[in-house]
Design goal:
Layout: H1 2-28, H2 38-41, H3 44-54, E1 76-80, E2 84-89, E3 99-104, E4 109-110, E5 117-122
Parallel strand pairs: 1-5
Antiparallel strand pairs: 2-3, 4-5
């Protein structure tokens, strides 16, 4: 007798839980299109950034910049919005001092300590 009551109680509990799970999943996916993607849900600046990333652009300098050898022919590229910019160069990997110098628009300039070349290029702000 007790075994029958236990089996009936368990089967009723399983039926209720499976019914609740089916009902809740229907509520979540009740829209015709389903869950929107990031592109469909983005607005404003986020939408502009996602579009630019799809086109292969880096709108907010989020990606790691391309590295250059620092020679006169291939100088390190420094983005700037003005005619000059203050640049800091750590000349050696284990060096604790930073050599600061002004970089002006135009030809590539050398670091006064190590001789690496830097060039200032105009960078448009995204907004």
């Amino acid at each position: 007798m007790a075994g029958r009551l236990l089996v009936r109680g368990l089967s009723a509990a399983v039926r209720i839980r499976s019914h609740e799970t089916a009902r809740s999943s229907l509520r979540v996916m009740s829209t015709a299109k389903g869950i929107p993607t990031d592109d469909e849900q983005a607005t404003g600046l986020e939408q502009r950034a996602l579009r630019a990333l799809k086109e292969g652009k880096d709108p907010y300098s989020m990606m790691k910049p391309k590295s250059y050898p620092g020679t006169k022919e291939e100088p390190h590229i420094v983005p700037g919005i003005g005619a000059k910019r203050l640049v800091g160069c750590v000349c050696e990997e284990d060096n604790t001092a930073v050599v600061w110098f002004w970089l002006h628009k135009g030809e590539a300039q050398r670091c006064p300590a190590c001789g690496s070349h830097y060039k200032l290029v105009h960078h448009e702000l995204p907004h």
